Amino acid sequence: MIKPDQCPNQRNKLNIDAFKIGEYPITRQMFVIVRQNNNNSLEQQAGEAYANMLLTTQGQKLMNEAGFARIR
Prior knowledge:
By secondary structure, this protein is an all-alpha fold. The chain has 4 helices and no strands. The chain has one domain (4-65).
């Protein structure tokens, strides 16, 4: 946490470590909902591929560019 007297010099800086361990008061989270069924449908495969892509290095970079804090 940044003390009030230091805030003008250090404002708008994220503490990524606090995000990773859950101590930062996150204002919004991103959820990916994947439809699952017994026949491993195309929709399920696409949803799982999308969710897995978001966790890759490239996906995390894109998330960061979109304004989200990276988790990896």
